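Hi D.,

Good news: the full-assembly prediction came through. Inputs first.
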Amino acid sequence: MKRALTGGAAMAEALRQINPDVMPVYPITPQTPIIETFAKFKASQKVDTEIITVESEHSAISACVGSSASGARTITATSSQGLALMNEILYIASGMHLPILMLVSARALSAPINIHGDHSDMMGARDTGWIQIFSENVQEAYDNTLIGLKLAEKTSLPVMVAMDGFITSHSVEVLETIKDEIVKKFIGDYKPKQSLLNLDNPVSYGPVGLPDSYFEFKLKQVKAVKNVFQEAEKIYFDFKEMSDRKYNYIETYKIRDAEKAIIAMGSVAGTIKDVVDNLRQKGEKVGLVKIEMFRPFPYKKIANVLSGVKKIAVLDRSLGLTSLPPLYGDILNAFYREKLNNSIKSYVYGLGGRDIYRKQIEEIFEKMDQEIFFKKEVEYIQ
Amino acid sequence: MNEQLTKNFYPGHATCAGCGIPAIVRHVLDEADDSVVVINATGCLEVTSTLYPYTAWKVPYIHNAFENAGATASGVETAYRILKKKKKIDKDIKFVIFAGDGGTYDIGLQSLSGMLERGHKVLYVNYDNEGYMNTGGQRSGATPYGANMTTTPASETDIGNKTFRKDLMEIVKGHHLEYLAQANVAYIEDLRKKTKKAFQALEKGPAFLLVLQPCTNVWKFPTSDYVKVGKLATETNFWPLYEIEKDNYKINLKIENPKPIEEYLKTQRRFKHLLRPENQEVVNYIQENINQRWNKLLKKAECQF
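Then the structure:
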């Protein structure tokens, strides 16, 4: 069914269809439309979810751990400072292999305080053992909510599904929603592998792991993460069968014969596609690789699809304050591991919600033809 | 070993010789009529009872982090309610938090407040050993005035900790609880009676027990003096036994002739420096504070709502 919804409302619509057991929530802009829309569903009895209006994001994720360990389908949502405040417990959620789904309206981090969209919050949580999925638009925000929940439950790992704060969360776009009964069938009943509330088999969750066991606990996480791509592919396949919409952990756009390419994540990908279309009409061989799943990072696949592209620009919507911009650094690793020597350059754009325009993207493609282009490693599109 | 008392919390844990935490856990859990699920904050109890691959817990148990026992329990209890409603669980379960004073007075205060305010049906038991004993005896918001702690060391010119204990009972009371009580592990029968009442109060919402737990290691007294030290805390009115039921205070043990606080201070090396003649004024100041608090408690107990 075609609908016109904001990203926040679209994610809430997917949550209505999921009808989770427990949702601990705490308000923060620009995430709040998700939980407010959902609360209205609850008030009008369209869902029977127990909403816990906790007193902080730290408690939101802490309650998620308690609820998910107890065998309840558990979802929360946050942004920015909220995600940063959760940081300690993010590691505990993944360390306990709890399939919590978290929706993130990605936003800048203080200081200075700024409520607008960028990817700094997600980058701060990138090595917490959570799967991270980025959405380009409202349709993807809706679809990834369903995909993310299923991926969490299949892999027993927590998942963050992000959309760009305000740009996607507050923009009305037309999307195609899936019928309730079909969604229900797709996600299925949640059957936890074990539960704290199983009195017949009492289990101690969260023990002390000393030097003789801690290492093995962490390696079990590594093993679980290795399973993610395979499970994701199965889910993407099922999702296409259901919706006719094709997903993968990276999306390639007109990349087959491309000589120049941009790598990016989130809403900017839509603008880049538009620019690619225009330049293609003028005969330029340009393309885009969009990272859909940022964690675990698809090193091999990225290097494979881009191995023949001579000139590449990586667009980061966050800084590496004391290191290289995060996506750029990962891309360098991907190419190094495959012993590729393509020319790669870093751009940082859109911090704190600053707009980026088609013209600026056209300029990146234009400049790639100049030799001097790759001399300066990191540039800022202000 | 008493088989009844050890059926939920096994022997073989690693608490220090002379530690009363296992006694608190065992007697509290023994008062529960239904099955129990335990939520534990990081601290002495947690590190000594779940050394992987062993566990002392025979009941379901979860430890999340230091400051979030209240929030974790909120999630567990809410999951229980919805799963029961959906008929995925059929048994009745009671939820009990065990947390130390660091995880309750200090870092976990917000999480505790949120849980209480939202009315989750959880019994919160704070075993209060008056400091961060698991990390070597640093001061907490529960540390008494004049205690020699590793972050407030006493010296020739310093009396140690210079703040009075936070009045946690009053803070918790502000959350409209059906039942909360201050108990002392040296008075087991009193603790058990209070636990029974607390479990009954869970029908309406959360309940709270603040239990004094003398720490032989940091308070520094011989393990054989455990009960004596605990009793002296109450006999000096330093730690009165009382309960608050529907906002009504009731003092459970009125000491006829309270002993001077010196009697309590001199049993523990953490207060040793206070007994030097030049610190007599400090002792007087502590005594004055105890008297004031006791008189206020008497007045509160006179009012009935």
